[in-house]
Write a structure and sequence with these properties.
It catalyses: D-glucose 6-phosphate(in) + phosphate(out) = D-glucose 6-phosphate(out) + phosphate(in). It is found in: Endoplasmic reticulum membrane. Keywords: Antiport, Endoplasmic reticulum, Glycoprotein, Membrane, Sugar transport, Transmembrane, Transmembrane helix, Transport. Pfam families: MFS_1. With 497 residues, the chain is mainly α. It has 19 helices and no strands. It starts with 6 loop residues before the first helix and ends in an 8-residue tail after the last helix. The longest helix has 34 residues. The protein has one domain: MFS general substrate transporter like domains (Growth Hormone, Chain: A, Up-down Bundle). Helix 2 packs parallel to helix 5 and helix 14 packs antiparallel against helix 19.
Length: 497
Amino acid sequence: MKSPLAPGIRFVTSFSRDGWYRGSILLLTFLFYTAYHLSRKPISIVKSQLHRNCSELVPPAGLNVSDNDTWCDWVPFDQGNYKALFGILDNCFLVAYAIGMFFSGIFGERLPLRYYLSFGMLMSGLFTCLFGLGYYWEVHSLLFYAFIQVMNGLMQTTGWPAVVACVGNWFGKGKRGFIMGVWNSHTSVGNILGSLIAGAYVSSAWGMSFIVPGLIIAATGVICFFFLVEKPEDVNCSPQHSSGRQLGETEPLLQNLRSTEGMSNGSLATESVEVAEEHAEAISFVGALCIPGVVEFSLCLLFAKLVSYTFLYWLPLYISNVVHFHAKEAGDLSTLFDVGGIVGGILAGLVSDYTGGRATTCCVMLLLAAPMLFLYNDIGRRSLGTTIGMLLLCGGLVNGPYALITTAVSADLGTHESLRGNSRALSTVTAIIDGTGSIGAALGPLLAGLISPTGWNNVFYMLICADALACLFLSRLVYKEAQSTCCSSMNNSFRCH
């Protein structure tokens, strides 16, 4: 009697060759961008170690601290202007990132993605490690750390346009919101891992809080070089249409057309699509801006990312100052914001896939986020349970729209029907949207550093105003989506104008 096939083998063989390649691309790009965010997080954890309340600590034996109340701080962050200096470091990274992002998409369209990503991760690893080596080399120059932040910000721009373009090459639009919602959890996973790794070393030797993440992202750069496949055509897998569908997936109208005209015409149409793709030129910057929805979503993301990155860079310090936790505890607790962000990103993708309203989904979540931010600042410090609950809720509502815009929306616009078959706009559109958002990411931590000395309440008022402005820029698209929904629900005998 022949024995049945082993369950594990049955599971493996149940997936097609295309399925295995698509799964591996999703996993690899997830790993790559997790490493990018993992290497960004240490600075926010280490801040509370660079400037501490020395009166609560026991000085080393033989150290005279009678006339030195900043003996435990790291120069130059030992003075009263330490928040402003932290803001400078944050903005050296974020301004360089924002400026570089607009050029990164252009390079991403014209260079092999595998080389581009590998180079970016290796160089990001180098500069992240150099920041940590400042601890062992006893470097106390603000210029040294600021230069490293600028260079790291430029190198980090290689990541997002490239990974979104790669995923867009492999996956169609059908479940793009859900797939990219799950995939985009790499942002929160990277933040969580970065917080935990940095927190493990911050109290003993904060230099390792940078060196270990730097080595990790450099290692993923090596993996990228050996294993990334940019397009399905490179390994003879089913390619995508410019609309993002596989060649086998067609609209009903197109199916009817083929049934009447015959298979020969269908084959000719397929060949013409492939030829158009082959000879399509990369889109210009101005051309990408003219795609309907790019400007609105870009400006919305500017304010949504302002809120998200203010939490990314200042939440551990806020928890440490307001709730009075130690650096490691504050860093660990701040990861709950990113856990909420994972759920929010997936939920936003599912809802937008089901309703077809990307802008409406973002707008509703942003409207809900504003009062939740007010409540978190008001009642979030009352108990540990309340803090945990509010961090999870705020994380989901703040990061949900941010995740949806930077993934599914960017991919949709990069393969918009107005491009007439030219899908090479994906990286440029992604860079424009995320680059504009990165301006907000730079402004948020800067404003937080300037406003926080007047009170944390004012920082939260600023974040609430940013949420309201993000909704405002989506209002036209929300109206159009509502109008389209109403028209489609009407009887076919009526015509919508």
